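Exercise: predict the fold of this chain.
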Amino acid sequence: MNTLFAETLKKLRLKKGLSQTQLGDQIFVDHSTIARWENGSRWPDAAMISRLSKALEVDARTLLLAADESEDPPNIIIVDDSKVILTDNMAVMEEVLPDASITGFIRPKEAIEYAKANRVALAMLDIELGTASGLDLCRTLLEINPHTNVVYLTAYSDYALDAWDTNASGFMLKPLTPEGVRAQLKKLRHPIMGISDV
């Protein structure tokens, strides 16, 4: 739950003298969506933050900073179609980031559903996911939240050029090592509170 964003949004709405229904009407969402944003159970995507900033007459950066300053541990997902590799990678990530919320997925569809319901700070994606592509999954995750850092995991360096075309933050060869993960965390496109300095 991002309480800072929720409190900031409510404060700005009240300052404008708007009800949740009135604000919702201005940005074309139901009042229940505004209520969820204000109670911290959901947070808007980049397009909605842009609409909110116009309706509330504030710089979008004000809302984006509030969204980024969550007090909760960052959500990290790892997606790999091999259970053995997924388990090993999760163990390495838990060693490096013991305070983060780390969730593993074998199916990309489940990772997408999770990302829609939770703000994902870092997604570590296998490039070959059976019949699915980690490159396509990256694009979908960045549509959900443009501030998600995506790091590709693969056993093949041949994918590096394709990976960079997706606005990913990095590229790591398997198997993961604590040292390699720590080095990669320092290079994230969107720094994460308490992570980039491990």
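Check your answer against the key: The beta strands are 75-79, 101-105, 120-126, 128-129, 132-133, 149-154, 170-173.
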